[in-house]
């Protein structure tokens, strides 16, 4: 067969857009080795080298640039065919809320992709704390929302309007090993943050003394504080700065539960907005699970 595998093409486009296999793998929800294998098979099928790999990342070859144009077109046609079968045109405006814990390093790429692939859809985004975003959604100030929850700490919601997108391990993160026999220095978001409460409650349950050394206003500020060595943070895996993922400075700290990322769906009626929100919800689910419809 001379046809291309659409998932291999999607991985190729994602790798080019992200600039490296390391950055592209989580966007496709694949391990780096699995992504590399898909790209190897694509190059084997094309019988040409498509990507130049170096320590700084990946860049397309002349053949890769040529294929990139066709790949974008084929993927757009595939997505358009899916939407056409659903009878929904992605146009108009969607008010989308996203917790800033949700894959912060990837979100710019994802939003740029949505803007490119759905030019007739206007996104109005709000990013911040899950509690603020969920409140805005409950007040109908947002059409769709992605929030983070710690299992067992949130009252049951309306399951018909909530979808579990993914879960991630929670990690203690520190620039250096904490000093023995001294209170643990914490870097946290303000008291209303669920991870602030989780960190403090976990340490109290294990009778580990701590002191709050730094309060950041958002996840980006918290990441900066950790990198600067201002304290130990409690973060979901995709929010951990890349340089800290393989460090073992916090082995003696107690284990943490996983975090859940939940999609709060749009209005459940027959309006045009409802139909567009439903279609875009499917795209969000597919994107965050690694495969578009």
From TrEMBL:
Ranges of residues in domain HTH lysR-type: 4-61
Protein's UniProt keywords contain Zinc-finger: no
UniProt-listed InterPro entries: LTTR, LysR_HTH_N, LysR_subst-bd, WH-like_DNA-bd_sf, WH_DNA-bd_sf
UniProt-recorded Gene Ontology molecular function terms: DNA binding; DNA-binding transcription factor activity
Keyword list, A-Z: DNA-binding, Transcription, Transcription regulation
PROSITE patterns: HTH_LYSR
Family of this protein: Belongs to the LysR transcriptional regulatory family.
Family annotation (PANTHER family): HTH-TYPE TRANSCRIPTIONAL REGULATOR LRHA-RELATED (PTHR30579:SF7), TRANSCRIPTIONAL REGULATOR (PTHR30579)
Name of the protein: LysR family transcriptional regulator
Source organism per UniProt: Pantoea rodasii
């Amino acid at each position: 067969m001379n046809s291309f595998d659409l998932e291999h093409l999607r991985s190729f486009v994602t790798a080019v857009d992200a600039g490296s296999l390391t950055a592209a793998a989580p966007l496709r929800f694949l391990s780096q080795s699995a992504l590399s294998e898909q790209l190897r098979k694509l190059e084997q099928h094309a019988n040409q080298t498509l990507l130049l790999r170096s320590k700084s990342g990946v860049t397309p070859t002349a053949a890769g640039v040529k294929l990139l144009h066709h790949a974008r077109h084929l993927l757009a046609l595939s997505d358009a065919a899916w939407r056409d079968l659903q009878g929904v045109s992605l146009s108009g405006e969607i008010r989308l809320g996203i917790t800033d814990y949700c894959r912060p390093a990837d979100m710019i790429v994802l939003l740029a992709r949505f803007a490119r692939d759905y030019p007739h859809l206007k996104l109005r985004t709000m990013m911040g704390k899950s509690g603020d975003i969920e409140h805005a959604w409950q007040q109908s100030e947002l059409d769709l929302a992605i929030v983070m929850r710690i299992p067992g700490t949130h009252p049951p919601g309306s399951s018909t309007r909530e979808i579990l997108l993914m879960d991630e391990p929670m990690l203690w993160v520190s620039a250096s090993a904490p000093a023995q026999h001294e209170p643990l220095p914490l870097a946290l978001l303000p008291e209303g943050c669920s991870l602030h409460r989780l960190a403090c409650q976990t340490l109290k349950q294990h009778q580990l003394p701590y002191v709050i050394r730094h309060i950041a206003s958002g996840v980006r500020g918290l990441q900066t504080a950790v990198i600067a060595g201002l304290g130990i943070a409690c973060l979901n895996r995709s929010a951990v700065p890349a340089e800290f993922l393989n460090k073992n400075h916090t082995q003696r700290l107690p284990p943490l539960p996983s975090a859940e990322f939940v999609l709060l769906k749009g209005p459940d009626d027959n309006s045009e907005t409802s139909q567009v929100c439903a279609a875009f919800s499917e795209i969000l689910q597919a994107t965050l699970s690694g495969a578009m419809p």
